[in-house]
């Protein structure tokens, strides 16, 4: 540990906020634990949330442009413009991330920028290819590793119009074509690929709850989408391992969900908690990492809604990843006296209070509670259940009412510092308990378009003024820099 840096940072913390003394002493008293030179850390983003320029650069419309066009699906009628205008300001963001000490940047590529109409016979947009070449080259020039998400929810609207995008298995062919373009154009420099980001958020929020594009509410549809997502993922994996093996990269999928804690010491509470883990993680993780099929609890409870795999398909999808990407933010409590009701979705038989109090500190989002104890349990659970190396591809916090504070207060984002401190130490504990964890990406590199919450909910370790688009580092970026200095 670099004592001078540590002391300087502690002094900074003390000067700026006497109220955080308890978390400071817990930071300083911890035994250092080395992560090793190969550990990857950085921050993450997604194309639709940051790029802006949705009509420029030859980009075609995505399902989010259409979904947000009526002004009713997001806070204040927010849309993908301006985003953070990273289409033009990417170099500034990459330089900031570098200045925080990170060694990697996770970002996504917008399908409609590469293939504006989406299909396997549609024209390729060379301007889009040129843009991502500039971006990738800038990351590499700064000495960082590009971690690329192939799909972070922005399907070309033309495919939605043509066949309902993820509702049709035709998307598997079109997705493979799109992925082949990316491997061909960028695979010489990109060695870390994520096929899909959070397929669960789409099958649940976009096809059951209806608050994400394209806004459907039908459980049978949602399971069709889930199967097509898994098939598209597996096809892309096989493509990479056959046609692009010489590139010698790794490829996986990023799954997401909560930790579910049995809130009572009863068999029923424990069973319900396991059902929730199965319904969030197992829906995708069991087919891809463990059995080639849906979890038993799901097969029993939702058999009439599921889109089943043939035995050949099960064989085709099983073990189609080099790693498990993992996005996790929060924990939930599960009780014995409520029967889990999976047919209404994936998240609704759990609660955010336990023993009469909330499971963790409050954020700006109703679903997000600062509960690091659950993060450790979840990491150990995923490791012991699936035995794949884990890349934490997102973890972060939206400070309550951050948007309402003046800039000078806002960038002293102690609640976010505290969140990352707690979750990083939970990660260390999980590693000490044997979990193979290889990366940590903070969500997000900058404030950005938080989907239906618009620009009102901020997750960035860098502040963005959405009128001037000026960037200002928050205290959390300094905290992360210091934390990884101590632990690398
Ligand atoms: C993830 N929930 O989404 C996404 O990968 C990011 O694009 C997003 O900005 C980030 O987390 C913060 O929300 C989530 O309702 C969306 O539980 C919704 C939920 C969880 C994650």
UniProtKB/TrEMBL annotation:
The keyword Calcium does not apply. Keywords: Signal. PROSITE patterns: GLYCOSYL_HYDROL_F1_1. GO terms for biological process: carbohydrate metabolic process. Pfam families: Glyco_hydro_1. The keyword Transferase does not apply. GO terms for molecular function: beta-glucosidase activity. The active site is at 394 (nucleophile). Residues 1-18 form the signal peptide. Belongs to the glycosyl hydrolase 1 family. This is Beta-glucosidase. It comes from Wallemia hederae.
């Amino acid at each position: 540990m670099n004592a001078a840096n540590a002391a300087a940072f502690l002094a900074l913390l003390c000067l700026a906020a006497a109220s955080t003394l308890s978390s400071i002493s817990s930071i300083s008293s911890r035994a250092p634990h080395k992560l090793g030179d190969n550990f990857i850390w950085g921050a993450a983003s997604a194309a639709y949330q940051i790029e802006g320029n949705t009509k420029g650069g030859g980009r075609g419309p995505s399902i989010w442009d259409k979904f947000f066009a009526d002004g009713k699906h997001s806070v204040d009628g927010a849309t993908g413009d301006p985003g953070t205008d990273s289409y033009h300001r990417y170099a500034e963001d990459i330089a900031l991330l570098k200045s925080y000490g990170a060694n990697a940047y996770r970002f996504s590529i917008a399908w409609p920028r590469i293939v504006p109409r989406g299909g396997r016979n549609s024209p390729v947009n060379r301007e889009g290819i040129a843009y991502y070449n500039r971006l990738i080259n800038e990351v590499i020039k700064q000495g960082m590793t590009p971690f690329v998400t192939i799909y972070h929810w922005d399907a070309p609207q033309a495919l939605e119009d043509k066949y309902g995008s993820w509702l049709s298995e035709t998307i598997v062919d079109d997705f493979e074509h799109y992925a082949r373009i990316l491997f061909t154009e960028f695979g010489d420099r990109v060695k870390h690929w994520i096929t899909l980001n959070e397929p669960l958020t789409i099958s649940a929020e976009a096809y059951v709850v209806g608050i994400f594009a394209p806004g459907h509410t039908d459980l049978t549809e949602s399971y069709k989408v889930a199967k097509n997502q898994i098939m598209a993922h597996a096809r892309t994996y096989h493509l990479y391992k056959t046609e692009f093996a010489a590139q010698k990269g790794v490829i996986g999928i990023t799954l997401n969900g909560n930790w579910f804690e049995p809130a009572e010491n009863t068999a029923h509470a424990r069973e319900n908690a396991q059902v929730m883990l199965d319904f969030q993680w197992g829906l995708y993780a069991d087919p891809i990492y463990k059995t080639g099929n849906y979890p038993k609890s799901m097969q029993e409870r939702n058999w009439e809604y599921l889109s089943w795999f043939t035995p050949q398909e099960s064989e085709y999808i099983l073990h189609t990843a080099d790693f498990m990407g993992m996005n996790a933010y929060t924990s939930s409590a599960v009780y014995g006296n409520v029967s889990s009701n999976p047919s209404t979705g994936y998240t609704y038989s759990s609660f955010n209070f336990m023993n009469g109090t909330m499971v963790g500190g409050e954020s700006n989002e109703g679903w997000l509670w600062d509960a690091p104890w659950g993060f450790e349990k979840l990491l150990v659970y995923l490791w012991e259940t699936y035995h794949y190396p884990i890349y934490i591809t997102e973890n972060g916090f939206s400070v309550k009412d951050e948007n309402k504070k003046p800039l000078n207060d806002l960038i002293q984002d102690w609640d976010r510092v505290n969140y990352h401190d707690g979750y990083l130490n939970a990660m260390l504990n999980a590693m000490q308990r044997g979990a193979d964890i290889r990366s940590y990406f903070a969500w997000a590199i900058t404030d950005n378009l938080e989907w239906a919450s618009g620009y009102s909910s901020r997750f960035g370790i860098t502040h963005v003024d959405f009128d001037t688009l000026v960037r200002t580092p928050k205290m959390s970026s300094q905290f992360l820099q210091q934390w990884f200095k101590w632990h690398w």
